[in-house]
Amino acid sequence: MAWETQTFGDVCKFVRGPFGGSLKKNIFKEEGYAVYEQKHAIYDQFTDIKYYVDEEKFDEMIRFELFSGDLIMSCSGTMGKVAIVPPNIPRGIINQALLKLTPNKSLSSEFLKLWMESRNFQEQIEQLSQGAAIKNMASVKILKEIKIPTPSESEQKRIVALLDTVFADLEQTRAKTEQNLKNARELFESKKLSLFESLSNSSNLSPLSLVCENIFAGGDAPQKDLYSKEETEKFNIPIYANAVRNNGLYGFTDYSRANEPSITIAARGSGTGHIELRTEPFLPIVRLIVLTPNKELISLGYFKHALQTLDILRSGSAIPQLTVPMIKEYSIPVPDLKVQGKIVLELEILAVYIERIEAIYQDKLTAIDELKKSILQKAFSGELTATAE
């Protein structure tokens, strides 16, 4: 039996969050009526409320109030994420990053949310916005023109129940796969810690100041005319800062401070404790710590693994910042170079094994996502219920 099709505008009321500076931070209160943000749609939860408005402001913006059964959709940044408003949330309004959708009685909120997560919805968005789906997703005019299947109430309930059951099974599979992926990564770290714990008991511990030819921190970033964001013929020396993304690459300049193979440690920010191995000359900036090992005492590869086992570095962003004096206080086991080579080889073999396992689990996670999309596609094409009549 064919489903009736209507436009989104026929079955749903849209209210876009307030524009024009109506919700500036200087009007927010410590308590009062909640202001719901984009994060509440993205994470599909309505707790952790940061902003409130007083009764006067709430009355002024009453049209943006949320009610149980409404849907909210994120309209900027991470666009298109949808959540259903549950019962008994703190009374409040949406901000400018959200769109409120109120379906009429012919359409259940659960059915609508699932449909908005399907390819059917996304493909129509792309067609109506001429391929610029992300840019125009927030346009109410475009949304109103989209065609939506509206089967009977009993059919909607059947589809929702079926998909809830299937997706619950998929989420269990996803959770197990993600745990297996986490276990694989922890296996490598556990093996490394075990190796270095044994070394600490059997080898002499040496302060970092004695196994390094130099330990220093980067200075200020070069002035605008002394570097380039892209590598050029003149500016071809990489600049590294305290960052994890893109290995901390800041840009390129024409001079270096670190000219020997070295290890860098992010000393501040969210990536504090992050370690990178650098083999080419570079310029460290914004207090990035550089450790250049004595090649006659310690190999660069072994040195990196040894540093990664230090408690102060493994705790990462829990430390406000690291300093050169702090780093110099720590010691590591330093066996002879032959033993170091064997340890590095053992860890590299294990790392390859772990990478293969990770690739398998990542493929499984991708397959789960694709299967979910395929099931949604079939559900809203009527294929999953065709044999159920």
Q: What would you say this structure looks like, in words?
A:
The strands form 6 sheets. Strands 2-8-5-6 form a 4-stranded antiparallel beta sheet. The protein has a 4-stranded antiparallel beta sheet with strand order 11-17-14-15. The chain is elongated, with a radius of gyration of 28 Å. The chain is built from 13 helices and 18 strands. Helix 8 packs antiparallel against helix 13. The protein has 3 domains: 146 residues, DNA methylase specificity domains (Adenine-n6-DNA-methyltransferase TaqI, Chain A, domain 2), CATH 3.90.220; 107 residues; 130 residues, Alpha-Beta Complex (Adenine-n6-DNA-methyltransferase TaqI, Chain A, domain 2), CATH 3.90.220. About 2% of the residues have low confidence. It is α+β, with helices and mostly antiparallel strands and 389 residues long.
SSE blueprint:
Layout: E1 5-7, H1 8-11, E2 12-16, E3 33-36, H2 38-42, E4 51-53, H3 55-60, E5 71-74, E6 82-84, E7 92-94, E8 98-103, H4 109-116, H5 119-128, H6 133-136, H7 140-145, E9 147-149, H8 153-202, E10 205-207, H9 208-211, E11 212-217, E12 237-240, E13 249-253, E14 262-265, E15 275-278, E16 283-284, E17 289-293, H10 300-308, H11 311-314, H12 324-328, E18 331-333, H13 337-379
Parallel strand pairs: 3-7, 12-16
Antiparallel strand pairs: 1-9, 2-8, 3-4, 5-6, 5-8, 10-18, 11-17, 12-13, 14-15, 14-17
